[in-house]
Amino acid sequence: MQYIEIALAAQKQIALVAHDNMKANLLDWARTHKAELASHTLYATGTTGGLLEAELDLPVARFQSGPLGGDQQIGAAIVSRQIDCLIFFWDPLEPQPHDPDVKALLRMAVVWNIPMACNRATADFIISSPLISAAYRRSVPDYSAHQARTIPN
After folding, report:
1. What is the pLDDT of residue 92?
2. What is the role of the protein in this entry (predicted)?
3. pTM, full prediction
4. Which of 22, 36, 44, 95 has the highest CB neighbour number within 10 Å of its CB?
């Protein structure tokens, strides 16, 4: 597969998502990293975004709640290169009614090669990386051959 490079500014567009049982963990993590998060543009699904805004006193652009389409909205923002990084504290022990949407969101992060953390340790690694606050050239798969394919009638 061929790759193309896109330039990312030093200020990143970071999406923050957490399932209900993981919201307290995400809030605690965000409090710990408030200074680092303050220099980036933050996005979140509905309820999580409201909690983050109140807890951090930082602006958070909010999508719909995950079960109401917020996960899909973030996935679409990844595809359109509006999200540079995904921090998603998902609950591996509870079934989610919108599990297909969750899997689609995780898939889009992988397909479009954005950094993604699904637990606190990985989120710590991402937020503490020097690349989070530096200009960065991210390799994105070149899907032009896939997009140009023809489907027989």
Report:
1. 79
2. Catalyzes the formation of methylglyoxal from dihydroxyacetone phosphate.
3. 0.91
4. 44
